[in-house]
Amino acid sequence: MKTKKLLGILLASLLVMSLLSGCSLFSGGKPADKIIIFQSKVEITDQLKACAKAYEEETGVKVEVWETTGDDYLQQLKVRLNNNQHPTIFSLAPGAESQELKNYLADLSDLNFVDKIAENMAHEIDGKVVGIPYTLEGFGLVYNKSLIDASKVKDYDSFVQMLKDLKDQGVNGFSLSSESYFLIGHILNTPFALLDDPLDYINKLVAGEVKMQDTEEFKEFAKFMEAIREYTNNPLEVTYDKQCGDFATGKTASIHQGNWCYPMFKDYDIDFEMSLMPFPLMGNDKLAVSVPTCWFVNSQVSAAQQDAGKKFLEWLYTSETGKKYLMEEFKFIPVVEGMESPNLDPLSTAVSKFAAEGKTIGWPNSNWPAGIVDVYLQPVTQEFFTTNMSGEELLAKLTDAFVQAGNK
Amino acid sequence: MYRKGDNAWYALFVLPLTLVFVTVVVIPFFIGIGYSFVKWDGMKLNPMTYVGFDNYSRIFADSGFWTSALHTTIFTLASVLIINLLGLAYALIVTSRLRVRNAVRAVLFMPYMIGGLILGYIWQFIFSDMFKNLGQLTGWTRVFFNWLLDPDYALVAMIVVTTWQLAGYIMIIYINGIQSIPDDVVEAAKVDGANFWQTLFRVRLPLLMPAFTVCLFVTLSNCFKMFDVNVSLTGGGPNNATELMAMNIYSEIFLLSNYGYGQAKAIIFFIVIASITLIQVYQTKKREVEL
Description:
A: 408 residues, 2 domains, globular, B: 291 residues, 12 helices
């Protein structure tokens, strides 16, 4: 008898548990008095929360902001989408990431400011606008104006000359850092971006029809990498923090970074002017500028929720309060007409200047096979910086990496 | 003696745990076997295509997976050996009549209480910055250089950190085993004129076999599955020279989004670990002696 009673209790508690967990499955169906935002840019988390509060005060719709640690945002997002914990709005990098999740992206073509987004900046898949750009970001050489004269670093020879001269003065001329994108992901973007048709080249590269070691842009890139290995500190011993710290204290004259790193300098008393210049591969004079991240509305939540999400985006990009947050709090560079950013930092100023003059190249690296930078390119580059392998071998291995990653 | 209420009590204690075990281990395990036969990127709305045994046959040509298997084997063999030797030595020291034995025991056990991730980051600093500076200070640059940039030394660094973390834990199990050896047996050996080493090898170690079984099992399975120290200390680098199997599978699934293929690797990984540890338990159990 006792056995049965106990079993009964166990079964009953099981039932209650399953009911409780069942409830959360249906929370998406409520009328939209609340939306949830999950996004990757950790730097604006606090400001976004303040913005959410302002939205609630103005419209009465509650906005919940889910936090992330940054590095594993994409994995977290995928886990949540698979487990019915649907955010209303989320962010992705346009390119391989958004392609992979395109079944989850709602059509945003009917937002009232879509036609005001700067040319080619709205993210389209299959002819429909699905992503609203955050801001513009640009990368290249962040350099110390008192150590480097940008007008004199125009090509391979002058770049190497600069490294040598600075080395004689006891200054590290240029620095990468050990994190996957800062080591190879960004710098390898330049030779791709200089090609006539980068996307076509990536497809052919993956299919094994072309090889980096036979392409002019990459051959020159290999020479640059050899020079970097020879004349600068080993990037594998440099973290992002150290790289920025050494730059801020004048030990390093230039770093391969973008305007996102400016907040890193706020703890230092910087006594020099800095700016951004293009990576001078093949005499390149254009900065790599693009949209790093877009807002997306989740197509898997109720229609009412999707509408609420779209209303929030419209409010963010058209209302006075929303624009104020974008420009002054998030410190974004305007991508939609009718917005002006009053006080940009020196690096962002350089980015918007290059963008305004049209002297920009794209970011084909966002169309590389998913995961390739961390899993394939980083190890190869680590080998390059710890051995004496030649630049040509580096190219051969990078080519192999593309073939492997693309055919999985 | 069997009493009427016993079954109910068993059920009360065992059922909740069984329930948890079934829902978080057994069921996902079988679902996982199913996933290993499909090509899928892990997103519910994206297509899942059945590919049969393709995922498994592809593994044979995957040089990255086999290199990581080689690293795992070297790492596991070395770590298991060193951890158990050290753990046993520690246990013998702290069960002797040493005056500070309680303090020593606490200090030796402490590394185990620090999580593997944090431990990895701490040691990363020691192996890179501190070693480099030591080398510059002392001039012994052949020993003190950045170990994490050398493919061979980086694996040694992994072994050092793992040993540092696990030896204290293994020590506790050995202490338990040593203390359960009846004093009369050891004393009898002494009376018969056996010296320290003879007592150790002829009397105490044979009686320690049950502890060996447990310790070898714990260290073998722990080292084979090592992931946290791997991620935080070396991240698999340089040039994948320290990538262990668990990390290879993680990258395949979560960074490259190949759920089906990664899952197939995980099944192979499971079979390997399960068979090795089962053989080990069977072999050491055979050698246990009953008093």
